[in-house]
Design a protein that fits this description.
Largest sheet: 6 strands, parallel
Structural class: alpha/beta
Number of helices: 6
Order of helices and strands: EHEHHEHEHEHE
Helix content: 25-40%
Radius of gyration: 17 Å
């Protein structure tokens, strides 16, 4: 289960002063998922309000991280209070302006700060990323991300991407080769947490 209260209040979340409703929904889904034996992946960007709406401020605007630090403190405290583990998918599709309308360098700083805070608070929780729009490649955004996380010792526990559409066998091969070339371990299975583009779906209705 992967959720963070997206679309509630629209706009909603921390930036709009409506964090509580999204957190309460997320908490309920988290506890239900865990009660059924499932894994829960939390989406901080949704709880913040960056679920496709044009939010008024992004983490780190004008070099100011105070608001985002306060958001992370609240979210970390709320997750801790549940007493159950989650996986942390720090920011959805950071290579699309729909979700991250700021420079890549600002996202990288977001990733570094978030990773370090989460790891310090929950050493045994898994961190997932980058959940980019697109698939692994031998150049461009994907390898820039790999170079950054390796250089800054903020490598996710699980690498993730969105395949809309693509060849999963080729994608895994590219992920393996680009990670191996940089000496980045990847012992866990990848997460392809969005897939099935409209042209890959087939409907067969019988009357």
């Amino acid at each position: 289960m992967r959720a963070g209260g997206a679309q509630l209040d629209g706009p909603g979340g921390w930036v709009s002063g409506r964090y509580d409703r999204r957190w309460n929904a997320t908490r309920a889904q988290l506890l239900r998922t865990r009660s059924l034996g499932g894994e829960f992946i939390i989406l901080p960007h949704d709880l913040r309000g960056a679920d496709g709406f044009a939010i008024s401020r992004f983490p780190g605007d004008n070099g100011n991280w105070a608001d985002y630090d306060a958001f992370l403190t609240r979210l970390i405290d709320d997750v801790r209070a549940t007493g159950v583990p989650v996986q942390w998918d720090i920011w959805n599709e950071p290579n699309l302006s729909l979700f991250w309308n700021r420079p890549q360098s600002q996202y990288f700083e977001l990733w570094r700060r978030s990773y370090q805070r989460i790891r310090a608070a929950f050493p045994n929780h898994l961190i997932v990323g980058p959940s980019m729009a697109g698939v692994p490649s031998t150049g461009g955004w994907w390898v820039q991300y790999l170079d950054f996380v390796r250089a800054n010792n903020v490598v996710p526990d699980i690498f993730s991407w969105h395949a809309l559409p693509s060849d999963p066998v080729a994608n895994v091969a590219t992920a393996n080769s680009t990670l191996d070339a940089r000496g980045i371990p990847h012992p866990r299975a990848y997460q392809v947490n969005e897939y099935g583009a409209s042209n890959e779906q087939r409907w067969s209705l019988r009357g």
